[in-house]
Each structure stands twice: as structure tokens, then as C-alpha cells.
């Protein structure tokens, strides 16, 4: 009797521990996305990136850009080459949850405010939209998407959370986005973007991830438009984290001076 | 005079800064492009061409100083022969960035206004009306520009233009204006009993056309402009500007009542003695003008919207009001569209002009990822005239682009020499090859 009771108590204890543990380990999609943003956040980051645009005929065009970001609310993308786009700058500032974007085109010598509809347009002929590139530049996913945990899966041999996210802002035209997040370090490895008809539109992948200055960094980001059969590759040339970047960099004044 | 002073000032600043510049100089940056434009003009049935080498040279000296030069070496193929090689210095300026102020000294282009391509409140630089697309070609002016930033969103800009630069006007446009006024005089003489041939002869012999340009020798004759800008006001960028200077286009500066009185005396002389020794002068020049502009750009419910208003009054109290209202939208398939309404109203002009109303529609879309197709339509809502300009841009390599396009126009010709259409070249087909380096 005592033996049976002991076994029963032991089983109850084990089940309690297992149940409690599973409650403690359960994590919501919102929490995962918060951790993704924390992983991608940096106080100050300056990177130079080679951009390759590949069309359906496999023709390639190359650009070089510099991305400077500070926290999750200030971002600046500047084109360094080729000559016909050199000096073109794209500034993103987020204040009280409201995102403002300005574009400076040297050819017209004028800073032009970007209306919200343009945020879904192609960023300088690439497969990235202005919104996508501002995410690469350091903006938070949590500001633009609601997230739910759909599954726990393996991707490229890594245990991942599979998130289903839905945009919270009207000016994002993706119907939804799926994100594969590495459980180990909360680095997003793959994202699928779906169009307003619910069809798969684009796939973004973070590849060759390594720790630089204590920050997880993809050495390559690919964005593939599966409907148009086009692709844009961002290859990291150099990056510096924890850089002291003065606020004056993130002004319309500065982008006109460059 | 003031242009020379400005050049001397720029040179003096460079000399003073030489030791500092030498120590902090980054690399010289040389960019440029080789352009080959070939145009077939449908009305003249002739080929025209433009070959150019454009060079851009810039250099930064630390964070607070830089210089920039843009020069062009070109030849044109006109009337079946090439013109001599010419050089234009498009821009050449020195930048100095102080704590809250940006200074720019030298020949420069200043673009204000929020509208698409047509910016009536941007009055500092003249348009090159001899270019195939004048709305895209502005000429640099020698000027001192100072921009003071109150904070990151608010700025006040002051510009002093030290020398008058006129819009290069196609000879046909000048002829249209002068022929128009002369034919009015001829008509007056015909009503007084002269034959058409006699009237034309009298006007030819007794009305001299005198053309002049402003010479700036006094401070009070300088052109200047001010712009106040406030960004992000409830999602809109707002600005107000003021300009005092000269009109870019020539017009009749004579008092026409006096010319008509002279004509009466001349006509009387002809009736009495068969000739007249009275010579009336018809002056063609550039009137002093003032303009106030207001601009707003932002978005309403996901659609980009803007407005640009400019009110001008010249030395003869002739008034021009420009109103431009526009919107743009990008569709999910990356089709970018613009719709813009342009209204120009005239009042109190010596020679009556009719208001002009235009609709401008634009669309562009990338195809095969790296090429672009675009089209512009300008439609005159008053006379029904239109200009349609489809164009394709092919990216042949990283640095080489080919533009292929054609301009198709409606049948009606505007009689007004100041019509937007008369300032543009007529029906044509073209290709442009541009190599950037």
C-alpha cells in the first residue's frame, strides 16, 4: 500500500513538475517577437553593404549602400555607388509610434517627404520595400506587427519558433508574415511575406550569422520575390556596433550635406 | 560686378582655409557621365543631337567644409552640322557648415516647391527653354545662400543672387512675341485706311525693337529670396517663400499707350507727306517682379498630396497666380502614379492673356526588375491641346542606360507665346545613351 502510495505521489510530483515546467517554458508569439527585436537592436550601428539585384533573366546590377542606425527609432540608408544613384539618402524617424520617412535625391537637390503608400513600393528597384529596408535598418517588428506562436519546428537543423505575424498598420500591404526564429538566440532565420490575396510573395533569409562586437549579425540577407522570380542580395562588407552616432546624422539637414 | 565680388570672396575663403583644408582633406571624388542624345524632330524632319561629357568633382574638408564643381563639355548637332565644342560651368560652390547654419557660396541651383516637376514658387533659377525638356533643366545662378536651422524640423533660408541670369529662349519664342505685337500695330493701321502692305511697311520702318537686360550695379537691384520651412506638422511639410528679382522671360517693357500714340503721329505723317521721321521704340526686356509662395506636402489616407501656390506681381502691377494641386499613389505592383492640376491666372496685363489650365498625368513602373517604363501626359483643359511622352529606360549594365521615347502632340497650337507647350519642343522621337562613371 505504502509502495503504491509512494509511486502515486512520485508520479503526481513528476507530473506537477513537468506541467509546471511546460507552463514556465511556454512563450507567446508577442514575447518571441520582443526578443527578436532585442536581438536585432543596437545602440549605434554603422554598416556597409553590397547590394545585388537579380532579375528573372539572371541579369545583375550592383549597388553599395551604407546603413546607419541608432536604437530602434532612427535609421539612415545612403547609396555610395554607382555614380547615378550616389548620394541618394533615405531617412526614417519614429516618434510616439509614428514613422516618418524622407528621401533625398541629389539630382533634384531636394528632400521629399515619402507618403505612406510609397512605403510598400520597391526601394530603389530592389525586392525590398521602403518598409522592409527600414526593418533591416533597425526598426522594431513589434511596432508594425502582431504575432502569434504557430508552431515549434526545425529549420536548417535548428530548433525554431514559427511565428505568424499580421501587420498592425494600414500602410503595410502584406496580408501576413511568417517568421522562423532560432530558439537558441532569437535570431530570425527566414521570413515569408504574403500578398493581399494570401499568396506567398517574398522570402527573406538571414544567412551566415556570426557574432560581431557581441551582436548576432547575418553576413548575407536575401530577399526573393517568388511571384516575379527576382532576388536581391545584401552582402555585409563591414559593420561596427556600439558606435557613438550623433543625433544630427538623422536629420534632413545632414542628408542634404552629404 | 557682384558676380566678380562673389568669386573673389570664394577665392579668399579658399586661400584663408588652405592650411586647414590641406590638413583635413579627404580624397577628391570625381564622378561623371557621357551623354549621347539623338532626336528626330517630326516638324522639321531633321535629326538633332547632343553629345556631352559631364564632370562632377567634390571634396570634403573634415565635417564642416566642402567644395563642388559640375562642368559640361558638349557639342550639338543642328541643321546637319556640329557646333563647336562648348563648356558650361553648371555649378561651382563652397559649403561651410556652422553650428546651426549652412552657408553655400558660388554658382548653384536651388529647388523649392512641393509639386511634381513644375514648381512656380521656385523662382531663383531660370529654366533652360532651349532644352528638350525645360522643366527638368535649370541654370545655376551666382549666389550666397544661408540656411539657419532653429531645430531639426524648422529652418529659414536666405539667398542673395549677385548677377542676373536670363532663361535662354528659343529664337522662335522671341519671334512669336515680337511678331504678335507688330501684327497688332499693323491691324491698327489697316483700320485707319492703310493697305496691308503699307501698314506692314510703316511698322517695319518706324517701330524699332530694342532689347535690353538688367545690369545690376546697386544693392537695391540685387535679386534675393527667403524660404521658411517647417517639417512634420501633423504629418505635413510646410514652407513659405518670397522672391524679389527679375522675370526670367523677356516681355514688352514699353508703355504700349505711348507706342500707340506714336503710331497715330506716324500714321498722320504718312497721310500728309507720305513718310514719317518719327521712330517709336518697342522695348523688350525683363521686368522686376516679386513673388510669394506657399507649399504643403504630406499624405491623406495613404495617398500622397501636395499643393503649391505662387502669387507674382511685377513692376507694372501685372499679376500672375499659379496654383498646383497634386497627388501620387504607388500600387502593389509598383506602378507609381501622379495626377496634378496646374492653373495659371493673369490679371492687369498690358497685353491681355488668357488663364491656362493643365492636367498632368504621370505613371512609371519597373519591368524585368532593372528597366523602367514611364509616360507623361500634359493636357491643356482650355484649348484641348495635349503632349504625350512615353519612354522606356533600359539598364544595359551597371553604369550604362538607354532611354527610348517619343513625344506626340495634339493638333492645336497655342497662340500665347508663354504657353507651357510653346516652351517645349514639338513632336519628336529620341534615344539617349548615358554612361555613368
Question: Mind explaining what this structure looks like?
Answer:
The complex is a heterodimer of chains A (258) and B (437). By secondary structure, chain A is an alpha+beta fold. Chain A has a single domain (3-257), classed as Lipoprotein localisation LolA/LolB/LppX (outer membrane lipoprotein receptor (LolB), chain A, Clam), CATH 2.50.20. Chain A is built from 4 helices and 13 strands. Chain A is elongated. The longest helix of chain B is centred in the N-terminal third of the chain and has 23 residues, at 2-24. Chain B is globular, with a radius of gyration of 25 Å. At the A-B interface, β6 and α4 of A face β1, β14, β15 and β16 of B.
Give the SSE map.
The complex is a heterodimer of chains A (258) and B (437).
Chain A (H helix, E strand, L loop, with lengths): L1 H24 L3 H12 L3 E11 L5 E11 L3 E8 L7 E7 L2 E8 L4 E4 L16 H7 L8 E11 L2 E10 L8 E7 L5 E7 L5 E13 L2 E11 L4 E12 L10 H6 L1
Chain B lengths: L1 H23 L4 E13 L4 E16 L3 E14 L2 E2 L3 E12 L3 E8 L32 E9 L4 E8 L9 H21 L4 H11 E5 L11 E11 L2 E11 L4 E2 L3 H18 L6 E6 L2 E13 L2 E12 L4 E12 L5 E12 L8 E12 L3 E10 L5 E10 L4 E10 L18 E9 L1
Parallel strand pairs in B: 9-13
Antiparallel strand pairs in B: 1-2, 1-22, 2-3, 3-4, 3-5, 5-6, 6-7, 7-8, 8-10, 10-11, 11-14, 12-13, 14-15, 15-16, 16-17, 17-18, 18-19, 19-20, 20-21, 21-22
Helix percent of chain B reads 10-25%
Percent of residues of chain A in beta strands?
over 45%
The total count of strands of chain A amounts to 13
Distance, first to last CA of chain B: 37 Å
- The helix tally of chain A amounts to 4
Number of helices of chain B: 4
Radius of gyration of chain B: 25 Å
Ends of chain A: how far apart? 85 Å
User: Can you count the beta strands of chain B?
Assistant: 22
Instruction: State the low-pLDDT regions of chain B, or none.
Output: none
CATH class bucket of chain A: Mainly Beta
Largest sheet of chain A, if any?
13 strands, antiparallel
* Gyration radius of chain A, in Å: 22 Å
SSE order of chain A: HHEEEEEEHEEEEEEEH
Structural class of chain A: alpha+beta
What number is the mean pLDDT of chain A?
Answer: 87
Largest interface in this structure: A-B, 41 and 44 residues
In terms of per-residue confidence, which ranges of chain A show pLDDT below 50 for 5 or more consecutive residues?
A: 18-25
- As a percent range, the share of strand residues of chain B is over 45%
Amino acid at each position: 500500500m505504502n509502495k503504491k502510495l509512494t509511486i502515486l505521489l512520485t508520479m503526481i510530483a513528476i507530473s506537477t513538475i513537468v506541467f509546471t515546467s511546460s507552463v514556465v517554458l511556454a512563450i507567446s508569439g508577442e514575447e518571441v517577437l520582443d526578443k527578436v527585436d532585442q536581438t536585432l537592436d543596437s545602440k549605434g550601428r554603422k554598416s556597409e553593404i553590397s547590394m545585388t539585384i537579380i532579375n528573372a533573366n539572371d541579369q545583375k546590377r550592383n549597388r553599395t549602400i551604407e546603413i546607419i542606425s541608432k536604437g530602434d527609432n532612427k535609421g539612415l540608408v545612403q547609396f555610395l555607388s554607382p555614380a547615378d544613384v550616389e548620394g541618394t539618402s533615405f531617412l526614417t524617424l519614429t516618434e510616439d509610434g509614428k514613422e516618418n520617412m524622407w528621401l533625398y535625391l541629389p539630382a533634384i537637390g531636394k528632400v521629399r517627404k515619402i507618403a505612406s503608400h510609397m512605403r510598400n513600393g520597391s526601394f530603389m528597384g530592389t525586392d525590398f520595400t521602403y518598409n522592409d529596408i527600414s526593418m533591416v535598418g533597425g526598426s522594431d517588428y513589434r511596432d508594425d506587427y502582431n504575432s502569434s506562436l504557430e508552431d515549434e519546428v526545425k529549420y536548417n537543423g535548428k530548433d525554431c519558433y514559427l511565428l505568424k505575424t499580421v501587420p498592425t498598420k494600414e500602410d503595410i500591404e502584406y496580408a501576413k508574415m511568417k517568421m522562423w526564429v532560432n530558439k537558441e538566440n532569437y535570431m530570425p532565420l527566414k521570413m515569408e511575406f504574403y500578398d493581399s490575396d494570401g499568396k506567398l510573395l517574398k522570402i527573406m533569409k538571414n544567412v551566415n550569422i556570426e557574432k560581431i562586437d557581441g551582436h548576432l549579425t547575418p553576413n548575407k540577407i536575401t530577399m526573393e520575390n517568388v511571384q516575379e522570380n527576382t532576388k536581391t542580395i545584401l552582402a555585409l562588407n563591414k559593420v561596427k556596433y556600439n558606435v557613438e552616432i550623433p543625433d544630427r546624422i538623422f536629420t534632413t539637414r545632414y542628408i542634404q550635406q552629404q | 560686378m557682384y558676380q566678380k565680388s562673389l568669386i573673389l570672396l570664394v577665392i579668399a575663403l579658399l586661400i584663408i582655409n588652405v592650411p586647414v583644408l590641406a590638413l583635413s582633406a579627404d580624397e577628391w571624388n570625381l564622378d561623371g557621365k557621357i551623354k549621347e542624345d539623338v532626336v528626330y524632330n517630326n516638324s522639321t524632319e531633321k535629326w538633332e543631337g547632343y553629345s556631352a561629357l559631364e564632370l562632377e568633382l567634390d571634396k570634403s574638408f573634415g565635417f564642416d567644409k566642402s567644395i563642388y564643381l559640375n562642368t559640361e563639355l558638349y557639342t550639338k548637332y543642328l541643321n546637319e552640322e556640329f557646333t563647336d565644342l562648348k563648356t558650361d560651368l553648371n555649378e561651382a560652390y563652397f559649403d561651410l557648415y556652422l553650428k546651426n547654419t549652412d552657408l553655400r557660396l558660388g554658382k548653384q541651383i536651388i529647388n523649392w516647391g512641393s509639386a511634381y516637376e513644375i514648381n512656380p514658387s521656385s523662382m531663383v533659377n531660370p529654366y533652360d527653354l532651349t532644352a528638350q525638356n525645360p522643366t527638368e533643366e535649370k541654370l545655376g545662378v551666382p549666389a550666397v545662400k544661408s540656411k539657419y536651422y532653429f531645430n531639426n524640423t524648422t529652418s529659414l533660408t536666405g539667398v542673395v543672387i549677385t548677377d542676373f541670369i536670363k532663361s535662354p529662349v528659343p529664337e522662335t519664342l522671341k519671334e512669336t512675341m515680337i511678331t504678335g505685337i507688330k501684327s497688332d500695330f499693323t491691324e491698327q493701321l489697316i483700320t485707319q485706311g492703310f493697305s496691308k502692305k503699307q501698314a506692314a511697311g510703316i511698322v517695319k520702318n518706324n517701330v524699332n525693337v530694342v532689347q535690353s537686360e538688367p545690369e545690376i550695379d546697386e544693392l537695391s537691384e540685387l535679386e534675393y529670396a527667403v524660404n521658411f520651412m517647417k517639417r512634420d506638422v501633423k504629418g505635413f511639410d510646410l514652407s513659405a517663400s518670397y522672391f524679389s528679382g527679375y522675370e526670367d522671360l523677356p516681355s514688352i517693357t514699353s508703355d504700349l499707350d505711348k507706342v500707340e500714340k506714336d503710331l497715330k503721329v506716324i500714321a498722320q505723317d504718312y497721310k500728309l507727306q507720305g513718310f514719317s521721321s518719327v521712330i517709336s521704340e518697342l522695348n523688350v526686356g525683363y521686368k522686376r517682379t516679386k513673388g510669394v509662395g506657399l507649399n504643403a506636402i504630406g499624405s491623406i489616407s495613404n495617398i500622397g498630396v501636395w499643393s503649391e501656390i505662387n502669387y507674382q506681381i511685377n513692376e507694372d502691377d501685372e499679376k500672375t497666380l499659379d496654383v498646383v494641386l497634386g497627388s501620387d499613389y504607388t500600387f502593389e505592383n509598383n506602378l507609381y502614379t501622379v495626377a496634378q492640376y496646374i492653373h495659371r491666372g493673369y490679371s492687369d496685363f498690358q497685353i491681355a492673356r488668357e488663364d491656362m489650365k493643365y492636367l498632368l498625368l504621370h505613371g512609371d513602373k519597373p519591368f524585368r526588375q532593372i528597366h523602367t517604363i514611364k509616360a507623361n501626359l500634359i493636357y491643356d483643359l482650355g484649348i484641348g491641346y495635349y503632349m504625350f511622352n512615353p519612354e522606356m529606360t533600359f539598364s544595359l549594365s551597371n553604369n550604362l542606360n538607354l532611354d527610348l521615347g517619343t513625344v506626340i502632340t495634339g493638333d492645336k497650337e497655342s497662340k500665347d507665346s508663354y504657353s507651357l507647350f510653346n516652351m517645349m519642343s514639338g513632336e519628336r522621337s529620341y534615344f539617349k545613351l548615358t554612361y555613368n562613371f
